[in-house]
From TrEMBL:
<dbReference type="InterPro" id="IPR006008">
    <property type="entry name" value="YciB"/>
</dbReference>
<keyword id="KW-0997">Cell inner membrane</keyword>
<feature type="transmembrane region" description="Helical">
    <location>
        <begin position="15"/>
        <end position="35"/>
    </location>
</feature>
<keyword id="KW-1003">Cell membrane</keyword>
<keyword id="KW-0472">Membrane</keyword>
<feature type="transmembrane region" description="Helical">
    <location>
        <begin position="47"/>
        <end position="72"/>
    </location>
</feature>
<comment type="function">
    <text>Plays a role in cell envelope biogenesis, maintenance of cell envelope integrity and membrane homeostasis.</text>
</comment>
<feature type="transmembrane region" description="Helical">
    <location>
        <begin position="145"/>
        <end position="165"/>
    </location>
</feature>
<keyword id="KW-1133">Transmembrane helix</keyword>
<feature type="transmembrane region" description="Helical">
    <location>
        <begin position="172"/>
        <end position="193"/>
    </location>
</feature>
<feature type="transmembrane region" description="Helical">
    <location>
        <begin position="108"/>
        <end position="133"/>
    </location>
</feature>
<comment type="similarity">
    <text>Belongs to the YciB family.</text>
</comment>
<feature type="transmembrane region" description="Helical">
    <location>
        <begin position="78"/>
        <end position="96"/>
    </location>
</feature>
<protein>
    <recommendedName>
        <fullName>Inner membrane-spanning protein YciB</fullName>
    </recommendedName>
</protein>
<dbReference type="GO" id="GO:0005886">
    <property type="term" value="C:plasma membrane"/>
</dbReference>
<keyword id="KW-0812">Transmembrane</keyword>
<dbReference type="Pfam" id="PF04279">
    <property type="entry name" value="IspA"/>
</dbReference>
Amino acid sequence: MTENRAPDPTPVSPWLKQALELGPPLLFFVLYLRLRDEVFTVAGTEYSGFIVATVAFVPITLASMAALWWLTGRLSRMQVFTALMVVVFGALTAWFNDERFFKMKTTIVYGFFAALLGLGLLMGRSLLAYVLAEALPMRAEGWTILTRRLTGMFAALAVGNEIVWRTMSTDAWVKIETFGFPIALFVFLWWQIVALQHHIEDEGKG
């Protein structure tokens, strides 16, 4: 009897995939740098360059997600959730003409991931293993350790974002949001994979 399985994602160049995933934040950063000192008047309301860059970031992100879906036939739940947050908080930022909404988006995204992973742990499951087990074969103990640590990391990033946007300038927040948080997360994940090497299974062993 044949099982009904979701089709495997279409292979795509890792460089192209990275460009589509990282391109929107970098374009937002460039737009912000070009527009930060400008003020735009629309229908009698003045909007800062940050607000305009935020509004432009929404279709850029959606176009990137559409391209990824067209090329691979699949989007991860994380990508869909992040894109949804960009749309919702981009709209709130524009509607209320208040940059704080977009800055809070990062806190909510990281906080949501921390809460989701933490809930899985309370239920005795590693949601990371559920999502990534095929790409990274690792024993259950390793997945539990990695999930606990990543839960803490996401929580720390959420708290860090709150501290940054509430106490620092918009310039500082944009730079830390674009480069600081992603680099910190990448280094943390790389460090954890190295530290948990003894939990990774050798697929060549029978």
